[in-house]
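Example (one chain per record):
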Amino acid sequence: MIKHGLIISSGSAIIEKAYLESALESCYFLCPKASFRHFKIFRYLIARLNIPFRKLLIGMILKKYSQNDLKYIVIFDSILWEKNIDLIRHFFPKIKIYYYYWNKIDERHCPNLVKKYCDDVITFDKKQSKNFGLRHEDAFGCYGGIFNASSKQYDYDFSFIGADKGRRKNLIKLATQLNEYGYKCFIYILSKHNNRYTKDICVSNEKISYTDNLAVVTKTKCLIELSQKGQSGLTVRVMEALYNGKKLLSDNVALKTKDFYHPNNIFIFEGYAVQRDKLYEFLQKDFIKLDDSVYENYTFKGWLKRVIN
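Predicted structure:
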C-alpha cells in the first residue's frame, strides 16, 4: 500500500522526474527548491537560526501536509532535512518516517541522529548499511528510452557526466586511455577546478541540466561509471544505462550480483586499465533487453514499495 504518503525530496531533478513518471495516486511530493523561490536564502537562515525560528520556517513548508491523511513520509538525505529531523518528527509525531541515504555518508552526516527520530533509516549502499547499522535497499532510475533502444547511431562511444567526488584524476586517466584506443568520449566533470583537458574531457564548475544530461546519454553507446572510494551501491549512471538501453563500463564488481547484470550489457574492470581486445569484443555484442519485471523493480514505484514494505 503506497497511497497517502509524502515524499520529501533533496531537490534532485532525478528524484522529481522519477516520481512524476510513477504517477502515484494520493502521494504528495515536496521539493524545497520548488516551494521557495529564494531557496538559498531560506537554507542559509535555517542553518543559522535558533530552534523557535527554525520551527517557524520548517512549519511554513510542512503545514499544508499536516491536514492530509498521511500514512508515511519518505525523506531523501539532505543536510537541510537531517539537521531539522527533530522538527519534522515534531510536526508528524504519529506518522511513520523513512529516511533514505541515496548519497555516500560522509563527515557532514549524522545517521545516529536520524535513527533517533525516524522509524527506519535506509541506504543505497550495502557497505554503508553494515558500517552504520542501516537497512539496505537499491536505488531507482527513470524510464528513459529503454523500449526505443534499437538505434545504432551514436555521437559518442563513451560518456560520463557527474560530480568530481574524488574521481577526477581516474576519470581523466580512463578517458585518455579510451581516446588512445580510438574511441570518442564525452566526459564532463563538475568540479571546483575549471579546465578543458582535451576536446573530449571537460572539467567545469558549471552544472549541466538533467535534460541535457539525458540528451548526451541518448547519443552514447556506453556509459562510464567510476565508484567513489569505499562505495558499492547503485549510482545514477547504472540506472541511466539500465533504463536507456545503454551498455555500461564500470569498476563496481558488486554489479555482477544484481538481477539486471548481463555480460553483453555491463563490462566490469578492476584497477585502472581496460583491456583493449576485451573491450572491443564487448562493444560488438548486441545489447540484451531484460525481462520487464527487472525494470519495474527499479522504478520509483518499485523502489517505494521496497522501502515502506
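Caption: The first strand starts at residue 5 and ends at 8.
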